[in-house]
Amino acid sequence: MIECKNVGKVYRRGVVAIRDMSFTIEEGEFVYLLGASGSGKSTLLKTLYRDEAISSGTVMIDERDISKIKVRDLHKLRRDIGIIFQEYHLLPKKTVYENVRFALEILAFPEEEMDARIRQTLTLVELADKADCYPEELSGGQQQRVAIARALINEPRILLADEPTGNLDPRASMEIFRLLMRINRRGTTVLLATHDQHIFQRFHFRSLTMSGDSWLLMNQKKQLVLYSTIIRKKIFILCRKDEHA
Ligand SMILES: Nc1ncnc2c1ncn2[C@@H]1O[C@H](COP(=O)(O)OP(=O)(O)OP(=O)(O)O)[C@@H](O)[C@H]1O
């Protein structure tokens, strides 16, 4: 479970990226963070990964206050969290297989179990047949899937996805969204930051309407499937497990 209480983040020069944000995300949820450019989505994901320290409030992950984790113990937190970005950050001189293997080497994963784990993960992201290719031989969507495989290789309980489709065309984006949903159905909590509201239409949601302080999203049976709260003009949308199309 992820619990943020009154979280604030102020960068140098006094730039306020997050102001007094509170929410809870249960294990296994699929959470969309929808918001305009500059609304603080990336900052929020970075604070959950402890890549950025928060300025105020508390972030608890599985009842651990992550601000209190010592730098030398950060790897323990990050073992439970995978992260992907708009850019794929693959090693260009390593094959798909080697890129994913490298992540396991860093984690000092048992050598004898590596091959099975890598093959299994490449199968999950539907890249088993590309194991020997180099990144430059892959499409953008395929490169992102390598990045996803690398992020999932240690079977983290949480996957943070920061605009993973930002460089992709609609079709490749759709494949990535579907893959993230599949990963979520296997039990991984997914936080997806995007400013792409069209994904909801593409996933056959019926309407996204404004009601008072909240956005409501109905499916084709007019059931409420998403809700959101507007936090200081920033849109924050939660989608509960198994409720997406
Ligand atoms: N390292 C940094 N130093 C100073 N200010 C920063 C830093 N990173 C982000 N900001 C500022 O914090 C605010 C939120 O930025 P952030 O990148 O979190 O937004 P975002 O919602 O992810 O935007 P986008 O959709 O464009 O990626 C912006 O005003 C940005 O300029």
UniProtKB/TrEMBL annotation:
GO terms for cellular component: plasma membrane. PROSITE patterns: ABC_TRANSPORTER_1, ABC_TRANSPORTER_2. Transmembrane segments: none annotated. Signal peptide: none annotated. The keyword Glycosyltransferase does not apply. GO terms for molecular function: ATP binding; ATP hydrolysis activity; transmembrane transporter activity. Part of the ABC transporter FtsEX involved in cellular division. Has ATPase activity. Essential for cell division and viability. Belongs to the ABC transporter superfamily. This is ATP-binding cassette domain-containing protein. It comes from Jeotgalibaca porci. The lineage of its organism: Bacteria, Bacillati, Bacillota, Bacilli, Lactobacillales.
